[in-house]
């Protein structure tokens, strides 16, 4: 009997140990992820804040100078404050995503309507930057999704296409589909992404060339937000190198969403 009780006690200790390990390990990992995120965010915010501080100090040094002569102090401070503002909005979106926010209200619409709205905005932007914009809506593709979120997704992809393409570059937006998928492609003939970074670009704060991207106002958060939006719709997003040079970002969305966000948004359908 004593032997039996010892066995039971040992077995329960073993089970509690295994259970504790199974719950503590993921908890530890998530705390570690959160710590790394906060560290990255603080680091990324420190640089523009330092620029603003030094430029404002420069402004105070010669108070008798006219504002027109102070452009070299004012312009970088303004640019960096805009970058902080963009970064904080992006961080807020990602924090909501981490808290398990769903994609929200869904509706059925033709992806070409989204494409048309984006094309109006970007044909103008491209023209201003002396770049060529091609819009190719291949067919009617009705999908169910959150229009606002998908609009934001395309803004991120199109902004990147413009940002990483030189003057006189080309940007193309393609709307396509299969029987059960909507497909969005954003192509450019810009600087391209290195083979080894094609997956990394979707991780937070990842930038191929930090110095260059800092100058163009990049925050390294756009594509992680894009991925979150696509995940919510139960779709996929991939980056690849075009053989002609440049980048292709392809998004595939199920016509009827089945992702985790979709579940949260429409529990009654599951
Ligand atoms: P960022 O704000 O720096 O553009 P993103 O998360 O949107 O951040 O993109 C991450 C990185 O992926 C960018 O810094 C850039 O190096 C690379 N990238 C994204 N889109 C493109 C593109 N169309 N062409 C070349 N590189 C790109």
Describe the overall structure.
This protein has 270 residues and is an alpha+beta fold. Helices cover 54% and strands 16% of the residues. The protein contains seven helices and seven strands. It has a five-stranded mixed sheet with strand order 2-4-5-7-6. A two-stranded antiparallel sheet has the order 1-3. Helix 1 runs antiparallel to helix 2 and helix 3 runs parallel beside helix 4. The protein is flat and about 95 Å long. The site of adenosine-5'-diphosphate has 21 residues, from helix 4 and helix 6.
- The best one-word shape is flat
From the structure provided, what is the oligomeric state, counting identical versus distinct chains? Answer: single chain
Give the overall average pLDDT: 88
What is the number of helical segments per DSSP (H or I, 4+ residues)? 7
- Ends apart, CA distance between termini: 50 Å
Order of neighbouring strands in the sheet with most strands: 2-4-5-7-6
The total of beta strands comes to: 7
Strand content: 15-25%
What ligand molecules are bound, each kind once?
adenosine-5'-diphosphate
